[in-house]
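Before the break, one more example. Copy the sequence into your notebook; we will annotate it together after we see the structure.
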Amino acid sequence: MAGDVGSAISQVNANVLSLHRELKSFEQTTMQSFASVDQKQNLLENELKDFYGQFLAFVKADLMQKKLQLAETRVGNLRQDLQIKFGYYAEIRRMANGIMQGVDAGIVSEETIKFTTEEVMIKAPKYWLAPTLVCLSSWISDNRDIAEKALDESLKRDDYKTTLFFMLTMRRLNRIEATKQWVERYFLHQDPKKLSREFILILEGIVTGIFPPASKQLMMTKIQSWIDLLVAEPDFVQKQIDTWVMFYKATRPLVNDMKYPLLRDYAINWNEIQEDLRNVYSNDELNNFFTDILTNNASDIKNITSNLDNILSSLVTNFDDEELPLQREVRLNELIVEFHGDEDEAKSRMQIEEDVYSQEVDFLRLLTNAAFKPEESGASKVTQSLAVSISQPWILEANKKFLAEYRMEQQQDVQFNIDGWQSKTQNGSDEEELILQQDSYYENIRQQQLAANKLNYWSLWIGIGLGLILLMSGGEESLGSAVVSIIIGIVVFFWQKGNVAKKRVAINEEIDTKKAKYKEVLRGVLAEVVDLKTEIFIEDSKSQKLQKTIQDITPESFSSISADVSRNIIN
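Here is what the structure looks like once it is written out:
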């Protein structure tokens, strides 16, 4: 009987193991089949994407090649049109440049200049530079009547360019009274709400004394009236303050992530903390910025004079308004060729080029640009000093607003997430309390996991219940099966009990390890919080030094040349 029972148990175990192996084999085969199907599908999708991408690239390359060929043809045709319609304009520009160089050197005779310039009036009936050259040659030869007539004609054709030309030429030839008159006319052309890029260079020339002294007084009077006009507009002062606040924000330095590695890894509000650090770091950066302006504002007269001469040269050599539509077409097609048929890239580059030279800003914005980025705006340190001294009241108010805003937004607490445990600290001084909270967090996890790892009796009860059912059904064969069922239930029960015990040991070990590891992490985080709060306090206190520097920005802070101008403007 015992032998039959043992044999039956062995057979049942063998059948169970065989069934388990077959199920695992079927599962593996099925998963492999699914994986193979997924792999083939992904491969097919990738091949289709590659093919589609290659097709689009081919279409784009073909289109770009056609546009390249068309652009090359257009460049030649457009240049030919320019030569036919405006070829003589280029000759006049070369002539004007030569006359200017000849006058400077004093090696060209009056007769040569007169003979050369009189012909241009006939060949260029609309070009402003033609009567301008006639006027210049007549002035050199002291022919007042023709000079005045030519000047009238030149002003009719283009008043602004003629004014700028003679203002710069008279300054170059050191004609003091004539220069003053042309400077006055030049300022009449200026709209304080729409000033061109070249104005900053003219302003520099007047500020640094390159123009006659009388021009400086004229400029100061004009600028004062502009400031009065602009400041009277609603919200204008507030806009200036907001512009400087934007500048403060833009100058904030970046934060070195390695300085606070644990906060970087565990602080929930690390991004906001970085912003706090950038804000307080800016105090030192800005103090250095304004101190540099206060201490390094010597003027480069030679470079400023060269810039003024470049304006005159550009005025003489640049294309006329009549030519611009064709010249723009030529430039666009040249860029298409340069970018190998990429028309979108060519148009984008051309837009950038046009924006750079056509930008117009109001007077105070122009000075603000000179203060922010003097190199990019074409200004020198002298003009930067002038701009800062004029803007000092707005700079100070902007600084107060910037400080108030970043202090209001400053993070009061450092929030952190350490292995799922979230908490916060204000200054890192509550270490003992936080460690207790962390211990409690891990003990709760321990109890939850241990509770979930309880011993189940279902296998034992199923085995016993099934055995009882078989016994009640009667029969000798049922007795053997009932015994087998009960034995299997007992075996599975004790196997589960052993697993539960092992899992409980593993849970306790894991929790103990985490508690020890992340307790040290917490201590490290709190130590970095202490350092962080100390650094923020120190860096923020530098704002007092910055405000003192800004308050000290007065006309007397700068060189005597710019001080005279800014003093008169501010007072």
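Strands lie at 414-418, 421-425. Residues 558-571 have pLDDT under 50 and may be disordered. Try to locate both features in your own notes.
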